[in-house]
Specification:
The protein has about 140 residues and is mainly alpha-helical. It is about 70% helix and about 0% strand. α2 packs antiparallel against α3.
């Protein structure tokens, strides 16, 4: 994509950094994921799609055990719901924030955010893997 669309701002500063970061995270390399996402930071509030790098940045911070940094990234998503629209990352930001607070050791805030996430997904199939994971993590707090 980077070679095929060298002049596309969305490709160069959104899709490519996000894909590279996800690949780094799949290799358990949060440091390179964070490096890849630096290119996307100036464009992160440009559109709903531009917030995917913010979500992945939050995940990379979680993988690096940087709870407060992760919380800041997920909070951006919650603060800009009008930009996120109906993207799944809007709902998943609640779970990310819960995990960030848990990593930071703030169990009271983590519990609240887990509750928020479960409330959003109250009508979801209870066998949905992400919902099961969230409930398991919440129970361990």
């Amino acid at each position: 994509m980077a070679k095929r669309f060298p002049e596309s701002t969305v490709v160069q500063f959104n899709y490519v950094p996000t894909i590279r970061a996800r690949l780094a995270l799949s290799r358990n390399d949060p440091s390179n994921a964070l490096k890849a996402l630096q290119a996307a930071a100036p464009y992160e509030l440009g559109s709903g799609f531009a917030l995917y790098p913010v979500y992945v940045h939050g995940d990379a911070c979680l993988a690096a055990h940087q709870g407060s940094e992760a919380a800041g990234q997920f909070q951006k998503l919650l603060d800009h719901r009008g930009v996120v629209f109906n993207e799944p990352i809007g709902a998943l930001a609640h779970l990310g924030l819960a995990r960030a607070y848990a990593v930071s050791g703030d169990t009271a805030k983590a519990r609240t955010k887990y509750q928020d996430f479960v409330a959003l997904w109250k009508d979801a199939d209870p066998d949905t893997p992400i919902l099961r994971e969230a409930k398991t993590e919440y129970a361990k707090l």
